[in-house]
Amino acid sequence: MSESRATGLAAVVDAIGGLRRATGIAGAAIGLVAAGAAATVAVERMTVGRDVRRQARLALDAAAPFGTLRGTPGRAVADDGTELYFEVDEADAPADPEAPEAPEALEDPMPEAGPGDLIPRPRSGTGDGSSAGLARRPGSAPVTVVFSHGYCLNQDSWHYQRAALRGVVRTVHWDQRSHGRSGRGVAQLQGAEPLDIDQLGRDLKAVIDAAAPEGPLVLVGHSMGGMTVMALAAQYPELIRERVVATAFVGTSAGRLGEVDFGLPVAGVNAVRRVLPGVLKALGRRAELVEKGRRATADLFAGIVKRYSFAGRDVDPAVARFAERMIESTPIDVVAEFYPAFTDHDKTEALARLRGLPVLVLAGTDDLITPGSHSEAIAGLLPEAELVLVPDAGHLVMLEHPDAVTGWLAALLTRAGALPAGTTVGGYGRTSSTAQPG
Q1: Could you tell me if residue 305 is inside a domain?
Q2: Do residue 109 and residue 206 come from a single domain?
Q3: Strand partners, 122
Q4: Distance CA 84, CA 148 (A)
Q5: Is residue 425 part of a domain?
Q6: What's 79's DSSP letter?
Q7: From start to end residue, where is composition biased (Acidic residues) (predicted)?
Q8: What span, in angstroms and rounded, lies between the C-alpha atoms of 263 and 19?
């Protein structure tokens, strides 16, 4: 074992050791989470050397297009002074010479579902695809689609959808506080208050005020980003009433996240729920040492990321590596800072603000973090919602089956009048050999 690897592992042991008996229970529980990933890593180690794997990661990082799509940058300031970074892609913007080669167009933005494809479950009152949404909100300002990303990710997690909609409709992509290029949460750094989902809703309002101060809005949120949209609706009902013409919730939840079992046995789930918040908090205090440990155990970390991000076995290695890079770039103290907010999250009442609007609720059938049943619960409270469950898809469904997500999103934009009927959007590659247009 190399000296750096030994030092990293020792750092983790040292950080965890301070929790004594409680941490021992957590270690066993987290061990259950990692068991499947560890088995995969063990097989890989028997066939591929560590240096070869490291070189492969570097090659994927250099060759993959993820993170290359950039727009006009801007910054918003949250109510506590936190700087929030966003980028705007204008409709009909001139091509960026530095951007990847233009993608092929999909023949149909929302092809009909078939066996092994999508499971659409339309709700009553889905509308006729007209532009009634825009007719209710006259004005010359263009429609803006605002994308909010999930926990431990950043705005680039919408890579495929951003590539497909580039130049077709005005979009805003932003990094949540303490993620990506946004600043660390000022209130949290000062210890003034713990972070909650309501704060993220206020952050989204600040981004909208700066990046899209007028005109119709379509709000799209994945996981924590969907919760952010719900928090916005709860705190700013007038904004929803006056400007929002459609909403999309991807792999998210309105509450009861404390009941999710993450695919673990009952004993493991109970242990994780009992001690994980304390473990994360303690590790956050030793962030520098723990980060060394994360780098030293990169193989195991990659296996865990893959298990909880994707469902298919043949996910493109470049996509899997991209997800790993996003998650590993989130500091452990930020991971610890955000985690408790999910237990308290309950925005079922806020969903009532969205009634009467076109809504897409989409999730993977094999999502272990926000199970499909949570999407079904959201759709059950919104009679106009279109519920779509994507087979063989995990939590990062927009990366695992990008054409499916993009197709249904384009259909939502058409229903809301944000895209003219018949508009085609671009596809952007595949994440596996079996993924088909949605």
Answers
A1: yes
A2: yes
A3: 386
A4: 12
A5: no
A6: T
A7: 93-110
A8: 26
Task: Give the pLDDT band of residue 326 (cuts 50, 70, 90).
Answer: very high
248 and 108 together in one domain: yes
Structural domain includes residue 426: no
Helix (H) or strand (E) segment spanning residue 348 = none
Average pLDDT across the chain, whole number: 77
Max Cα–Cα distance, the chain, nearest Å: 66
Q: 197 and 135 in one domain?
A: yes
Separation CA 170–CA 102 (nearest Å): 18
Token output for 103: 């993608």
* Dist CA 367 CA 401 (whole Å): 13
Amino acid 78 reads A
Of 334, 333, 319, 438, residue with least CA distance to 390: 438
| Domain co-membership, 120 together with 13 | no
**The domain containing residue 310 runs over which residues?**
3-64+263-315
pTM assigned to the model: 0.76
Check whether residue 102 and residue 203 sit in a common domain. yes
**Can you tell me the mean pLDDT for 110-114?**
40
Asked if pLDDT for residue 356 goes beyond 70, the answer is yes
> Is 407's pLDDT higher than 50?
yes
Q: Is the residue at 421 inside a domain?
A: no
What does the block give as tokens for 422?
């018949």
Q: What is the tens place of the pLDDT at every residue in 120-167?
A: 444 433 333 333 444 344 456 899 999 999 999 999 999 999 999 999
Sign of CA dihedral 114, 366, 227, 80: negative
Q: Do 168 and 48 sit in the same domain of this protein?
A: no
Q: Are residues 250 and 267 in the same domain?
A: no
For residue 208, name the pLDDT band (cuts at 50, 70, 90).
Answer: very high
Residue count of the chain? 438
Question: Is the domain of 281 the same as that of 395?
Answer: no
pLDDT score of 54: 59
| Two structure tokens written together for 147 | 């994308």
User: How many distinct structural domains can be found in the chain?
Assistant: 2
Dihedral angle over CA of 229, 234, 240, 242, nearest 10? -150
* Residue linked to tokens 């009553």: 124
CB half-sphere exposure, 395, CA atoms < 13 A: 25
Radius of gyration of the chain (CA): 21
Q: What mean pLDDT comes out for the span 317-321?
A: 92
CA dist., res. 12 & res. 72, Å (int): 40
Domain harbouring 392, CATH code: 3.40.50.1820
